[in-house]
Specification:
With 173 residues, the chain is mainly alpha-helical. It is 63% helix and 0% strand. It contains five helices and no strands. Helix 2 runs antiparallel to helix 3, helix 3 packs parallel to helix 5 and helix 4 packs antiparallel against helix 5.
């Protein structure tokens, strides 16, 4: 069989999983949000006893969706840039501003990783109101995804590109 020149390259399953890790986790989190909010609405208006846990599960899943989605945005270069001023600078100054931007972003990711780890550790003994789960489940994604954002940003800086699959229903870019 001859592969067409536009066919996507075949990747190992683990490689494909790691490449799409952020999207998979964020997608599952969004599905959990939809399911728990829907169940909360049904139990509130159909049954006599509303599901108290539904809001808490949606809140936890929302944190996961936001931070893993943010890591995916770094990967696809979807973070905002304002180039109105830098475009008017001399080339040497543009390069300096870009390098400073890289340093500042990586410093921010490092700080958020450190801060997130500290906060996740500190909230381990603090349970959520309804399910009595450690609040680390709410704050843990901050630490993990900040480190993941730094990794993805370094990969982007090194020239790694993630292109959205043109056969997917939705894509970035």
């Amino acid at each position: 069989m001859n592969a067409s020149p536009t066919a996507a390259p075949v990747r190992a399953p683990l490689s494909a999983l790691l490449d799409q890790f952020e999207e998979i986790v964020a997608g599952v989190a969004v599905a959990v949000i939809i399911a728990s909010v829907s169940w909360g609405v049904v139990t509130r208006y159909v049954t006599a006893q509303p599901a108290a846990w539904a809001s808490e599960v949606a809140t936890l899943a929302f944190a996961w969706a936001i931070y893993f989605g943010g890591a995916a945005c770094i990967k696809y270069r979807l973070f905002p840039t304002i180039e109105m001023v830098t475009e008017r600078m001399p080339p040497a100054l543009q390069t300096l501003v870009r390098r400073m931007n890289h340093v500042l972003l990586l410093a921010f990711f490092a700080f958020m990783t450190w801060f997130g780890v500290r906060f996740a550790i500190d909230t381990w003994d603090s349970p959520t109101a309804v399910l009595r789960l450690p609040q680390t489940l709410l704050y843990g994604p901050v630490a993990f995804c900040s480190a993941l954002m730094a990794l993805r940003y370094l990969q982007v800086m090194a020239g790694r590109r993630w292109d959205a699959d043109e056969h997917r229903e939705t894509h970035a870019g």
